[in-house]
Design goal:
By secondary structure, the chain is mainly alpha-helical. The protein has eight helices and no strands. The chain is 62% helix and 0% strand. The radius of gyration is 14 Å and the shape is globular. The structure holds heme C. It comes from Sulfurovum xiamenensis.
């Protein structure tokens, strides 16, 4: 099942990175895609896993994200990445805007097509 889904998604995301519709923060979307998607699934899928209070908690509690990922060197490196450091607030806003009970429904667009990871 997973393989059937991942390939078209991959093609869709590679084929269309340059035609962004600015209904959500596409820069945040792409940053998440680069730094978190390898483990957490697509940015919208990831955002939906928890609610807005939890996003706040994980991002605003000092050292929390690092602690959760302490056994994942790749994740730790990505958290230290200057892209993450620079855009942390934007990512938090993106996650909250698209979180579990946000009601955000993201249709098929140039960055993203479908709701599965
Ligand atoms: C190398 C894989 C990996 C990468 C890359 C990664 N994570 Fe995680 N993340 C995990 C794992 C595994 C857990 C679950 C840890 C646990 O439950 O103890 C997790 C848990 C979390 C949680 C706690 C809530 C939840 O969904 O379980 C948050 C928030 C989180 N990650 C944010 C991020 C962000 C933001 C990024 C990108 C900057 C990121 N992660 C990149 C592996 C990763």
């Amino acid at each position: 099942m997973k393989k059937i889904i991942v390939l078209p998604l991959l093609i869709a995301s590679i084929a269309s990175l340059s035609f962004a519709a600015e209904k959500y923060d596409t820069k945040a979307f792409r940053t998440v895609q680069k730094l978190c998607t390898s483990c957490h699934g697509t940015p919208f899928y990831m955002a939906k896993q928890i609610d807005e209070d939890d996003w706040d908690f994980y991002f605003e509690t000092p050292g929390k994200l690092e602690k959760i990922h302490k056994e994942k060197p790749e994740a730790l490196a990505n958290l230290k990445n200057s892209l993450f450091q620079k855009r942390k607030k934007r990512l938090l806003k993106f996650f909250i805007d698209n979180s579990k009970f946000s009601g955000a429904v993201n249709g098929c667009d140039a960055n993203f097509c479908g709701t599965v990871h």
